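Private note to self, pasted from the team thread so I don't lose it. Backbone tokens:
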């Protein structure tokens, strides 16, 4: 499994890349692998302020539907609209083209509570 060292991770398999007071959020390579072929993604929370751990959207794969959870509290600024037409991008490139949302971070201290790449690798048995 690919676990980039420059990202932070959650136990629910989301990743976060902080960029100042904003961040990009997506699902990990492990998550996309476990889900299988992703066929649909829905995020209807753009413009909303959500707390850490709240669901910001859903991913539908051939066999299951899963919620995606906020790694930190913040306002959802944008959704990667390219995923509507090509949800399989999440399978092919989960860390770059397959980013899911951009957020404005409300509490930067929460970032320090996320898993490092090493800790996340241990969690997934890597």
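Design output:
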């Amino acid at each position: 499994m690919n676990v980039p060292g420059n990202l932070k991770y959650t136990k629910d398999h989301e990743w976060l890349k902080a960029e100042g007071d904003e961040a990009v959020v997506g699902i990990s390579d492990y998550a996309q692998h476990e889900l299988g072929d992703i066929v649909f993604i829905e995020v209807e929370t753009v413009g909303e302020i959500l707390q850490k751990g709240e669901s910001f959207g859903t991913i539908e794969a051939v066999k299951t539907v899963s919620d995606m959870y906020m790694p930190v509290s913040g306002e959802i600024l944008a959704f990667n609209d390219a995923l509507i037409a090509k949800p399989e991008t999440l399978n092919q490139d989960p860390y770059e083209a397959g980013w899911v949302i951009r957020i404005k971070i409300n509490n930067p201290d929460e970032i320090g509570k996320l898993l490092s790449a090493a800790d996340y690798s241990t969690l997934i048995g890597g």
